[in-house]
Amino acid sequence: MLKIKVKILIVFCLLLFNSNVQAKNPSTLIVEIVDQASSILSSNLTDDEKINKLNEIAENNVDIKGIGFYTLGKFRKNISSEEQDRYADLFRKYFLKSFSSRLVTYTDPKINVISEKVVNEKYTIVNSVLVATEKRPEVKIDWRVYTKNPDKPLIRDLIVEGLSLARTQKEEFKSVIQNNNNDINALFKTLEDFINK
Amino acid sequence: MKNYTSLARFYHSNYSFTLIKDFIYNLRMKKYLIMLFLSFLINFNAHSSSDGTNEMSKKSSGEVKDCFESLNRGIFAFNQALDTLIIEPVAKGYRYLPKPIRNGTSNALNNISLVVTIPNNILQGDIKVAGKNSARFILNSTIGILGFFDPATKIGLNDYVKEDWGQTLGTWGVGEGCYIVLPVLGPSTLRDASASLVNYVGGNAWYNITVDEDTHYFSDFDYYASRGLTGVDFRAKNIESFDNLEANSLDFYASVKSLYLQDRKKKIFNSDEIIETLDDSDWEEIDN
Q: A-chain residues within 8 Å CB-CB of B249?
């Protein structure tokens, strides 16, 4: 009986230890991602190899599905589950292509994490700056990190100089749909065109 | 984005002084009628959605109506063509200037903008900031040699934030009115466009001593060159960002509109608190 109790205690302690190890501070998450991206971008890899590695980072650390549904806004409620699945797939491809092509032009971006602010139990804002270069001034970048599951914090938005990229994208998608008689298929086609170009 | 608007004024600087002067003289004749008309439009828009409280604090910038979208899109395309043909190449050339020259130009332009910022600080009730900005202006205009150098920042008078007449109206609770795109000048709203007319009726000391009055020290050229340089300076700092945004946009017009309106809202709140830029409730539905 004692042996069983000891075993249970050991398993419990291991689980506890493990969960503590996995729990990640949002600032740590951003520092890790930035370091990883920076080392990829400054490496001698080809652009395609860099894109693949950057996409891997994004898929592990960004809530692509959540951003996708946020971006769809009110139109999410009016589409079927099949259309939702199709949208989620298209958005994922669109996001990754857009994300990596934005980043791949930077050769060695230096981002310093400055501070973080816990908004509520679901969100923490991590404040950072993209260090100035000869060509451009310093840029403030805030990261909205979704912390509902503290063991797996996920990025949900980038706020560049106070301007939210997720919000901008949401209004862009809304514009595409509204200018095509509220037809969600127009957005699907636009996304496909972007993915295939 | 405000500077994006002003950068476009550079287009006129070398070729169209006469046209602009005529325009401004005509504008003076019509200013009261125009301001009356725009004030009516803005107030109408602000009141139509009012429930008796200040809606500015609750509205998201995305709710600003695009009343003239077809026309706006046409003008936006025209402005883009102008940007491609003139402003971007000029901005790229500007980047070849040595960094100290570019920094000095940037400093001097910021210094000039203080003559509009300070009265707006006062009108917005930021007396302490107005005092700080006044000290900054005096110091940089003298020791800083007409603003080319920035000794004020070195002694702690930093964190300068530009203010304008549109922002002041915003802090007073005046709604944006419709979103508009002005030829050459770029994105704006009825509120901001009409408020900017104050610059031409005595509200901009730099305009007054260059264009409005013959002081023998400055000419019209100084004013328009400063406006143009402000735009080029801003554009030069953002070439990659603009290219990147355009390349990754599904609807570039909608992206620019969204960014402009978010930026204006942020400036009116004078806050870096992104909670106000992106309300948490927007995400709630996703979580449920």
A: 172
How many degrees, rounded to 5, is the angle at CA B255 between CA B252 and CA B261? Answer: 140
Q: Which chain B positions have a beta carbon within 8 Å of A98's beta carbon?
A: 248
Question: Rounded to whole angstroms, how far apart are CA atoms B259 and B251?
Answer: 13
On the CB side of A56, CA atoms within 13 Å amount to: 9
Q: Which candidate, B272, B276, B280, places its Cα nearest to that of A147? A: B280
Rounded Cα distance between B140 and B147, Å, is: 5
Angle in degrees, 0-180, between the axes of helices A184-196 and A165-178, rounded to the nearest 10? 120
Q: How many CA atoms lie within 13 A of B263 on its CB side?
A: 20
Nearest to B91 by CA among B260, B248, B239, B197: B239
Structure letter (DSSP) for residue B184: T
Q: For residue B167, give the DSSP letter.
A: H
Each residue's pLDDT tens digit, B102-141: 999 999 999 999 999 999 999 999 999 999 999 999 999 9
C-alpha A36 chain-centroid distance: 14
Residue type, B259: L
| pLDDT tens per residue, range B142-197 | 999 999 999 999 998 888 899 999 999 999 999 999 999 999 889 999 999 999 99
| CA dist., res. A30 & res. A132, Å (int) | 19
Chain A residues touching residue B242 (CB < 8 angstroms): none
Is the Cβ–Cβ distance between A111 and A34 less than 8 Å?
Answer: yes
What gap in Å lies between CA A75 and CA A96, rounded to an integer?
22
* Nearest CB neighbour to A167, from listed B240, B275, B278: B278
The three-point CA angle B31-B187-B74 to 5° equals 100
Higher pLDDT, A1 or A111: A111
Helix B220-237 to helix B99-123 angle, to the nearest 10 degrees? 110
What letter represents residue B238's amino acid?
N
Contact of A102 with chain B, judged by CB distance below 8 Å, is answered with yes
**Its pTM surpasses 0.80:** no
| DSSP per residue, B89-149 | HHHHHHTTS-HHHHHHHHHHHHHHHHHHHHHHHHHTT-HHHHHHHHHHHHHHHHTTTTTTS
CB contact under 8 A, A171 and B99: no
ipTM: 0.81
CB atoms within 10 A of CB B58: 11
